[in-house]
Amino acid sequence: MEPYESPESTMKFLREHILGRGAFACVFGGTLNGIPVAVKRIQLHDLEAEIQAREENILKSMDHENVLKILHIEENEDFKFLVLELCEATLHDYIRRRYVGDMPPDPNALHQMASGLNYIHSKGFVHRNVKPENVLISAKGVLKIADFGFCKPFRKTSSFSMVIPRGNRIYCAPEFLQLESKTNEEKEKINNDKAIDIFSLGCLFFCYIKMGDHPFAKPGSPVNYTVTSNIVHGKKYLHLAMTRDHYAFEIIDGMTQAVPEDRWKLEMVIELLTPRLVKDKMNA
Ligand SMILES: Nc1ncnc2c1ncn2[C@@H]1O[C@H](COP(=O)(O)OP(=O)(O)OP(=O)(O)O)[C@@H](O)[C@H]1O
């Protein structure tokens, strides 16, 4: 098949070279100025203009090692193309053991994810869809938070959709899962709160260390829809799957507190994941 060649730039990709698919996009391997890149192709009529613009504007404003970079944007009458730095795999692939390339040591991987998310928060955004599929792994084994389709500026009261990301909800905070039953004012507060991302990242940390397990799934039972019910009812099984003296126990427990105000702040998580403090904890 002929490659897609942009009429306005040096972007090229092969339609059969698919790196992944999401609910709204197909991602292809391609090149820009001869350099390998990922091209995220979004069907224009599939998405409201506001959502399309949101992802590209947010990505353009980000510059951090642990946040996926956007290199170029263009569109034709049918599609928008977001040209992104190329990664090798997602954390989902790693957990499923489909990716066996370079990875940082576990505490450093957690540190990288927390640093990327903290940067996103520092720029005034809540990501709202932190899950293994949305953390990418670069060829050098650097972790990058990606997919800003549900990301939202906080503090801004807006007509922003209150919809919970579709698909897998097992990383959603309890207050986020119960959004439908809330008043508009409560919905606004929850959607604006960085604490929903911190809860998701806490679940993701556990899933990463335990290669697919979930802190709200009974050890040995499948990680399925019962997890969301356990999250809502505060049934956490962390202590059955990880010893209390594990360097990450307190951190994950703190990040997955039921009450948003009680959840640990990312600054504290990042500090406790510095190599010196992890070493002290491991030697204690
Ligand atoms: N920069 C990249 N490098 C390599 N693969 C990528 C890259 N970006 C995305 N992918 C692959 O494409 C998949 C879909 O991408 P993405 O999550 O951005 O699409 P989406 O439609 O916004 O997804 P969602 O359904 O989560 O909203 C990812 O899970 C990953 O496998």
Task: Give the gist of this structure.
By secondary structure, the protein is an alpha+beta fold. The protein has helices at residues 49-60, 91-95, 106-122, 174-177, 184-191, 195-209, 226-232, 238-241, 249-255, 266-272, 275-283, and strands at 4-5, 12-21, 25-32, 35-43, 70-75, 79-85, 89-90, 125-126, 135-137, 143-145, 152-153. Residues 19-25, 27, 38, 40, 68, 84-87, 90, 133-134, 136, 146-147, 149 line the site of adenosine-5'-triphosphate (ATP).
Identify low-pLDDT runs. none
What's the count of strands?
11
Q: Please identify the structural class as seen in this structure.
A: alpha+beta
Assign the CATH class of the largest domain. Mainly Alpha
What would CATH call the architecture of the largest domain? Orthogonal Bundle
Helical fraction equals: 25-40%
Cα distance spanning the termini: 60 Å
CATH topology of the largest domain: Transferase(Phosphotransferase), domain 1
Overall number of structural domains: 2
Distinct small molecules: adenosine-5'-triphosphate
Outline the fold blueprint.
Layout: E1 4-5, E2 12-21, E3 25-32, E4 35-43, H1 49-60, E5 70-75, E6 79-85, E7 89-90, H2 91-95, H3 106-122, E8 125-126, E9 135-137, E10 143-145, E11 152-153, H4 174-177, H5 184-191, H6 195-209, H7 226-232, H8 238-241, H9 249-255, H10 266-272, H11 275-283
Helix pairs in contact: 3-6, 3-10, 6-9
The structure holds adenosine-5'-triphosphate (ATP).
Adenosine-5'-triphosphate binds at residues 19-25, 27, 38, 40, 68, 84-87, 90, 133-134, 136, 146-147, 149.
